[in-house]
Input
Amino acid sequence: MSETTRTRSDVIVVGNTSDDPFAIDVAFAFGQTEDVADLISMKQFANSEFCPRFISDENDFTNIGNKLAGKTVVIVSTSNRVVSRQNLAMRNVLIARAAKENGAAEVILVEPDLYYSAQDRGPRPDLGSTPFERDSKDLKKFDGQPFSVMLYAQMLKLAGVDRVVTVHNHSHAVRSVFAQIFDGGYHHLLPHEIYVDYLLNSDIVRYGPNGEGLALCAPDQGAREFVLEMASSLGLPKVKCILLEKERSGERDVEISLYEGSGSSFDDFEGHDIVLFDDMVRTGSTLVETCRFLKRVKPGRLVFAVTHFYASDEGRQKMADSAIDEILALNTLPAVLNRDEQGRLRKKMVVLKIEKWLARKLCEITGVADEPSENFYQIDMSSKNPRFRRKIWSNDQLASLRTG
Output
C-alpha cells in the first residue's frame, strides 16, 4: 500500500481490449474522466501482431519515451468470448512493457480471474506448493505439461508488472507463486463484504433477527476458511456452518460426506435456508451432486454463491437442476451478464457487479483518497423487478415457512 496520498490524475486505468465494458466501468468508478479509448490504442499489424500504444500528441516531440513519467498504469484484464485467454495474457505483457518503456513508475495488473490458475502444478514435487503431500497420482496428472502459472507470473514480472490484483483464487500453489515473485505486490482480494452486504440487505434467504434458520455451507476443505469467515462477518450469532468432505474417485466422480470435524449432524440443519459457497464452477457436475446431497437435510431454500462463473453449455444444463433454487454470482467473468450465456438459468440467477468494489480497492492500493460510498456493487438480474427485498423474519414466521 502506498504511504502517501496521491491524486487520480497520477493513475491511468486501461483495459487490454478495445471498449472493454468491465475496464471502462472500473475506470469510471475510480474517477477517471478520460475515456479509456483516448488513452491507449490497441493496434494490430497486418501480420496479426498486437502493438499497444499509449496515445500522445503527435506534434509534441518533447519528452519522447517518457510521457508516463510518475504515473501508475492499471491494466484491467477480464475474459471475453472474442479474444482467447492466451491472447489476453500476451496483451497484458505487451501493455505492461509499453507502459514501463514510456516512463511509468508502476504497473498494476487487475485480473479478477487469474489466468492459468488451473495449471498450478508441474510433474515434480518442487513444481507447485500445496497444503498436502503430493503423491504419484497427483504428479501424474501434470506429467508432460509445463508449470504454466509460474511462467505467466515470471513473464508479467519481466514485462514490468509491479503488482497483481486478483479475486478469490482457489489455488494455494498460485497464491504462493505470485506472492513469491511479486514480493508484497500480490493482492488477493476476498469478496466477503459483497456477499455479506447482499445477504443482510436482500431476501434471497430467510432467517430470524440473529440468523436463526440460516446455514452457510463449505463444499470441501478449500472453502472452509472462506465460509467460516463469512459466518463471522455476518454478525449473526445463530448462523450455522455446514462443512462437507469431498473425495474424487474420477475426473467427474465424487463422494460427498459431512466433515467429521464440523461437530454437527444433518438434524441440526433441517429446514434451514442454505447458502453454498465456492470460488468457481465449470461443468457443474460436483455442484449438482453436492446440492442433491444437501437436499437430504430437507432445507428451505438452497442458494449457490460463486465468485467465478464459467457459463459452459454443460454447466448451464446441469445447474438448471431443481436441487438449486438460486445462483448468486459475481461478474469476474463478465460473460455471465449475457442473458444468452445464462440460458435457462436467467430465471434463478443474480449477478453482483464488482467494478465499484474493485475501484475502491484500487484506491487503497494506489494511495488515492476514496470518496465514501455505501454502494460498492450493482445488482443485475433478469427480472425487471428485484426478487428479493430484505425483511426480518420472526421465529414463528420461519417455522410456518419450513412447515409449508
In short: The longest strand covers residues 240-248. The domain at 192-354+376-403 is CATH 3.40.50.2020 (Rossmann fold). The first helix runs from residue 21 to 30.
